[in-house]
Amino acid sequence: xxxxxxxxxxxxxxxxxxxxxxxxxxxxxxxxxxxxxxxxxxxxxxxxxxxxxxxxxxxxxxxxxxxxxxxxxxxxxxxxxxxxxxxxxxxxxxxxxxxxxxxxxxxxxxxxxxxxxxxxxxxxxxxxxxxxxxxxxxxxxxxxxxxxxxxxxxxxxxxxxxxxxxxxxxxxxxxxxxxxxxxxxxxxxxxxxxxxxxxxxxxxxxxxxxxxxxxxxxxxxx
Length: 222
Ligand code: AMP
Prior knowledge:
Elements: E1 2-6, H1 13-24, E2 28-30, H2 31-41, H3 44-54, H4 61-71, E3 81-84, H5 90-97, E4 105-111, H6 114-122, E5 124-127, E6 133-135, E7 154-155, H7 162-184, E8 189-193, H8 198-220
Parallel strand pairs: 1-3, 1-4, 2-3, 4-8
Antiparallel strand pairs: 5-6, 5-7
Bound molecules: adenosine monophosphate (AMP).
Residues 9, 31-32, 35, 52-53, 56-59, 64, 85-86, 88, 92, 159, 168 line the site of adenosine monophosphate (AMP).
């Protein structure tokens, strides 16, 4: 079972991705997290992508696809994975179809309007160590508390600065429609209203995954 979670930056994708991965016992693969880790460790990859990420622009389809292809060949993802932040373009989606059989994909879209996204992202902090996202009450707090999982400080992502957020949203808006159109007619596709309380979003996402899996299994057994 390979699940893709699509949605704009700040739609709650990271949180929901983590819940789906835990619930179904599959690894959570966040391309943003992989790239941020590379930047933090100072690797060749990190040096290559650091400026692009800081500016809120996208790294090339070729580079990100190769990273995902390599990750999806590791043994822990043999029975599936949750992809968060990939694919972001039709080119990446086409490439993914050559890595995972298209009928094995479950594609979930989180829908959230722009005004709400900017509001949420001003309050978003990330744990630099384990990468989990938290929402803090005060948008002005530079550092706000500690990670509930590992205890390290929560910090604002460099690319969550307001002007960079606007650039990221414009990039998403330009690419999202064709990407959604690429998947929308597939039986494994479902959209969820991301403005609901997070628990309701999670329940709706689980509901779609269970329904889609069930219908794929019953088709497979016929
Ligand atoms: P995210 O954590 O998903 O918001 O990703 C953070 C940043 O990593 C993005 O703004 C891009 O610079 C880069 N990135 C992550 N995933 C991709 C992707 N699939 N294609 C291109 N760039 C990506």
